[in-house]
């Protein structure tokens, strides 16, 4: 990771911050993005091991122009881009029949379209420069099981899974670019836990559904992301690695 340049969207908190921290600790330069500049600056203080190692870009992944500006700024600051983590996400629990059009579009635009805008902008940059970068998309296991109560997120994550596998073949074949995904289960201190665990009853049911009987930790996800970007994973392409204590093998319900 030394001197590599990594972009982490949604990098000011939770898993995004933990991944950025790990990459920086291993010597990478890191761009973190998010909608709140104060949160980004606080994360930068926590992540940086030397001045100038972390670039904060305030932006919303739903805006393709801001995404392009973020990619250009990263290139101008660090000279290149090696890796991208599409971690930014939006989610909330709501019955499918009650979702407003705007509610559906908000999550689809953040998760599916936002991932696409970042992926295409970075991919074009690599292809123009003949560079073999690699991408990690953050999924959820309900992309292939069912996410009752989060149909917008489940549909978007399923789309991102298709994007992961399609580009692993299309860009892998033509350009040697690797695209993989991580499907985390319930991870402590994340927006996902805040948004999806609505009551003590649900928390207890969720814990019973996890064979290992504990939540995952952001640093465990960060270690997996570090491995997937490393040369040790150079032959892993188009895969989805689940890190959920075995939870997806049980049923999960959010209603
Ligand atoms: C019903 C809701 C709602 C809710 C928002 N909406 N929350 N509808 N139930 N609980 C509706 C609003 O009423 C509005 O529709 C529309 O959604 C947009 O809401 P806004 O607040 O105006 O949008 P915005 O400010 O853009 O916020 C986007 C967001 C928000 C997705 C709604 O929650 C957000 O910013 N989230 C980012 C952080 C996050 O969610 N992290 C968790 C990711 S976890 P109307 O019609 O009223 O205008 C994850 C995977 C976890 O993704 C997997 C774990 C196993």
Automatic annotation (TrEMBL):
The cross-references to InterPro entries, in alphabetical order and at most eight, read: DECR2-like, NAD(P)-bd_dom_sf, SDR_fam
GO-annotated molecular function:
2,4-dienoyl-CoA reductase (NADPH) activity
Q: Which residues form the signal peptide?
A: none
> Superkingdom, according to UniProt?
Bacteria
User: What keywords sit in the KW lines?
Assistant: NADP, Oxidoreductase
Example GO BP = bile acid metabolic process
Among Pfam families, the record links this protein to: adh_short_C2
NCBIfam families according to UniProt: PRK07677.1
The name this protein goes by in its record: NAD(P)-dependent dehydrogenase (Short-subunit alcohol dehydrogenase family)
Question: From which organism does this entry originate?
Answer: Tumebacillus permanentifrigoris
């Amino acid at each position: 990771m030394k001197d590599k340049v990594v972009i982490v969207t949604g990098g000011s908190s939770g898993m995004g911050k933990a991944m950025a921290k790990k990459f920086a600790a291993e010597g990478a330069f890191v761009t973190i993005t998010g909608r709140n500049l104060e949160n980004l600056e606080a994360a930068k203080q926590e992540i940086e091991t030397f001045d100038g190692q972390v670039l904060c870009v305030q932006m919303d992944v739903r805006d393709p122009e801001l995404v392009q500006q973020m990619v250009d700024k990263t290139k101008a600051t660090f000279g290149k881009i090696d890796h991208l983590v599409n971690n930014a996400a939006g989610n909330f629990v709501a019955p499918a029949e009650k979702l407003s059009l705007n509610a559906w579009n908000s999550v689809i635009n953040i998760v599916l379209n936002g991932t696409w805008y970042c992926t295409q902008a970075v991919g074009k940059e690599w292809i123009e420069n003949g560079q073999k970068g690699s991408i990690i998309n953050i999924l959820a296991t309900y992309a292939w099981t069912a996410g009752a109560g989060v149909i917008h997120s489940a549909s978007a994550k399923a789309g991102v899974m298709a994007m992961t596998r399609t580009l692993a073949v299309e860009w892998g074949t033509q350009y040697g670019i690797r695209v993989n995904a991580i499907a985390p289960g319930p991870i402590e201190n994340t927006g996902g836990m805040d948004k999806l665990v609505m009551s003590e009853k649900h928390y207890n049911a969720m814990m019973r559904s996890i064979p290992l009987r504990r939540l995952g930790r952001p640093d465990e996800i960060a270690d997996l992301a570090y491995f997937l970007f490393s040369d040790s994973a150079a032959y892993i392409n188009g895969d989805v690695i689940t890190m959920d204590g075995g939870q997806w093998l049980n049923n999960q319900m959010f209603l």
